[in-house]
Amino acid sequence: MIYLDTNVIIYAIENNEKYGKHCKQVLLEVESGKLKAYSSVIVLVECINVLKKLNRILAKEGKKELVIRDNVDAILSLPIVWLDLNFLVIKRASEYDFDVSGIDCIHIASMEMNSLSKIISADEDFDKVDFAKRIDPLDYKS
Asked: What are phi and psi of 38, to 5 degrees?
């Protein structure tokens, strides 16, 4: 059981030069059932936000834009356990003293409240959380 951060999904979608191949492999393992993944619904919000930003860049460059709905449908087709965002999660996130973003606090609270201690993420800020073990996509092994 492992928590997936937003960047794993986004790097796979955008074929990120450094992480894309590794993130796609993680998602293939989720798809096949080899890896049981959890994520907060806030990840879906973040994905839509990032995809819209990418489309603005692509439009300025005169390139073909991503079809956001198709990407969200593909994400939702994965057997990820989606953790609800509720007032208890938000309350817990507001209590942390970690030097991370507010959104990362939501991820941390979602993990803590669902007894998840591992996260796959390229975001080194999660290394600041004493009860979370971050696994970089480059280092992930099934």
From this structure: -125, 150
Q: How far apart are CA 22 and CA 17, in angstroms?
A: 10
Is-above-0.90 flag for pTM? Answer: yes
Per-residue pLDDT of the chain (142 residues; tens, 9 = 90+): 999 999 999 999 999 999 999 999 999 999 999 999 999 999 999 999 999 999 999 999 999 999 999 999 999 999 999 999 999 999 999 999 999 999 999 999 999 999 999 999 999 999 999 999 999 999 999 8
Domains of the chain: 2-83+117-139 (3.40.50.1010)
CA proximity to 75, closest of 51, 95, 92, 53: 51
